[in-house]
Amino acid sequence: MPLSLLFRLIIPACVRSHRACCASDAGLLGAGALALLLSSFSNAAAPALLRAVMDGAKASASGPHGGNGGGAGAAEKAMLVKAMGVFMVGALGSWVRTRCLGTVSARVARRLRRQLMAALLSQEAAYFDKAVEAGGLSVADAANRLGSDVDAVAKAVTSNLSNVLR
Question: What is the radius of gyration, based on Cα positions, of the chain?
Fold first, then answer.
């Protein structure tokens, strides 16, 4: 898929669908998106940092006298602290993303369930009789099926955002 098609069609469609059901959770979605980007950048930086740590350890072990006396030098320790910092920032970003997007998903599911229940309760009794007589789902089956579909829709909202940003 060309990148221009992604920017012209898919991203605006995702933004419109997220605005419709997540307008009140824009702050949490934004925090989750920023945390996802932070985590992704730290994951992208990890190989270069680990390579630098390994190169520093290899250079100090193969010094002119076969090593530097058994301890890592100040440069190697500083690089190791930087690598640990990047991993900790990535872990924090991953945690914030999970919490924010999970909260948004639960809120969307709650709103959809309330709308579903209001729609079912607003129907006349004859509506439910007609559905059973026509060989369709009973009221309990329909409510159960729609209730379980709510979770799938709620998870799709947050996972679509996550997948677009990755």
Answer: 26
Q: Which domain does 66 fall in, by range?
A: 24-165
Cite the beta strand spans of the chain per DSSP E: none
Distance CA 158, CA 17 (A): 11
| Residue 135 domain-assigned (yes or no) | yes
CA distance 104 to 27: 10
Residue 157 tokens read as 């909202």
Asked whether residue 123 is domain-assigned, the answer is yes
Structure tokens at 1: 């898929």
Asked whether the beta carbons of 100 and 28 are under 8 A apart, the reply is: yes
pTM of the model: 0.64
Whether 99 maps to a domain, the answer reads yes
Task: Report the distance separating Cα 117 and Cα 129, nearest Å.
Answer: 18
9 part of a folded domain: no
pLDDT (tens, 9 = 90+) of the chain, 166 residues, equals 444 444 444 445 445 555 566 678 888 888 988 998 899 889 888 888 888 878 877 777 666 555 555 555 777 788 888 888 999 999 999 999 989 988 988 888 888 888 777 877 787 777 667 766 666 666 677 677 677 777 777 777 777 666 666 6
